[in-house]
Design the sequence.
């Protein structure tokens, strides 16, 4: 596996593959890779001939006071892991490669409407506009046929789908299931901010989500489910940002006809801000019975 | 010259040219082509091996009550003209090719900040977001090496530059000088809305612009110049939307240090809304003397 840091070097490899008729998959990451990322690489391999991963901790998606400076950077271990996983090319740029300093003139950004300002967007101002911008730039650097994003960051996945659809990026977005520990904890680089005791307690997240899914299937009222989930986590010592049930398609508030829902949570535990989500089909049990 | 209407057929031709190592230039238009457009094709030919033009009257850039329905559509004459001009491929899609009807899920749009809401943006709500969206889509359909835009639509040119820069579209934007009649009238499809008498009177636009340029070179105060230009046109029977002097780089208000300026005007005359602009260097005469 080759590692390149400049856009020019990246494009040279990609151009070669294009000429050979290769189908190219892309997995953008912020590094500090774990089994969750490696399952994205697996998905990428299953959908293409060549897999490009990127490692870049994008400053524009961190709000003031967040963990940009402390975000774990472990390039050598990541390179070993990607090589073992069969990734073909790693793009590991510096800030100046992604955002050349000579940029001037008027600015443009992505307006995501409600999708950009609700849920995590409400607690991380500018986060999703930053995500959309860096992904647009990375897509234009790599020009892949497919790109793989984890469902763990469900709102981000919808942001990327909205971006690609609105501007007709010539690539397919694949959402990959959330990697989890045996007990069900969603794999995340931020889990390492947890102490052993907190890590045990963090299982409360998946338990609360599973309970909400069951309650949605039973047709219980959404506001009750949201309140119960929120308080369940608060009682365990979390500081929840939100515990929300939304329409899966676009994270709009659930209307009376909506069946395909998503339960989403963000909650702080010690130094970590954990997010997770599950799919839920409303009234599934009611319909089945 | 071949004409294609589907994105798939377009991509097939482009793919072939890519394999042959051709450099590709793109000239997006709304059709009803005149010598101004053909000079963009000339610029495109000078910068590439293959020239793609598009003709598409994009509904999302027309505000309510504008001339979308009446906009002149003259495909056969345009095809003849493009062929004579040496254009290699015409992309003439239907609405369903550009905006496939199966689109659903959350929306995204381009936020252009002040650039999108000032000058023409103030009088044509949503216009520049629509321009940015359709150009992003067209760029992703054609994937050219360069795209050529006329300076006649100066604010549009800056919008496209902002779009390309923010999202790192892998293409170069070339601005081409405004095509003019011998008397100086900026060539525009909307000139045909003018009667013979109005056409004569329309020369007031370039006269007012030239006067403003001279006054800027002499170092006269900007607000005075703007007011004089506005009234000069109003006295000729125009209904001016604006007559403005701005910083050329980003159309911001002129600061004390700014030298590289642009004079821009939009004014209605009869059924036509005319726009035009000229470059002006502040204090040029003063410095030279």
Sequence:
């Amino acid at each position: 596996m080759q590692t390149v840091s400049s856009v020019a070097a990246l494009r040279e490899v990609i151009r070669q593959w294009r000429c050979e008729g290769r189908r190219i998959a892309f997995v953008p990451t912020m590094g500090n890779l774990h089994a969750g990322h490696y399952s994205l690489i697996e998905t990428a391999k299953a959908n293409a001939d060549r897999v490009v991963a990127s490692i870049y901790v994008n400053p524009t998606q961190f709000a003031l006071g967040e963990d940009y400076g402390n975000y774990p950077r472990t390039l050598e271990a990541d390179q070993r892991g990607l090589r073992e996983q069969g990734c073909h090319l790693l793009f590991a740029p510096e800030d100046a490669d992604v955002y050349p300093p000579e940029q001037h003139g008027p600015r443009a950004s992505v307006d995501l409407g409600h999708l950009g300002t609700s849920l995590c967007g409400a607690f991380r101002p500018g986060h999703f506009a930053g995500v959309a911008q860096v992904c647009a730039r990375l897509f234009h650097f790599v020009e892949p046929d497919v790109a793989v994003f984890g469902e763990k960051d469900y709102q981000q996945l919808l942001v990327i789908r909205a971006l690609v659809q609105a501007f007709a990026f010539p690539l397919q977005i694949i959402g990959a299931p959330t990697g989890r520990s045996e007990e069900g904890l969603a794999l995340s680089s931020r889990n390492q901010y947890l102490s052993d005791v907190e890590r045990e307690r963090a299982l409360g997240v998946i338990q609360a989500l599973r309970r909400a899914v069951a309650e949605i299937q039973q047709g219980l009222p959404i506001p009750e489910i949201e309140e119960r989930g929120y308080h369940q986590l608060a009682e365990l010592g979390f500081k929840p940002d939100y515990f929300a049930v939304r329409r899966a398609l676009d994270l709009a508030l659930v209307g009376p006809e909506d069946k395909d829902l998503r339960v989403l949570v963000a909650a702080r535990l010690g130094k970590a801000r954990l997010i997770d989500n599950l799919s839920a089909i409303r009234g599934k049990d009611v319909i089945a019975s």
Remarks:
- Chain B is about 40% helix and 20% strand.
- The CA atoms of residues 123 and 163 of chain B lie 21 Å apart.
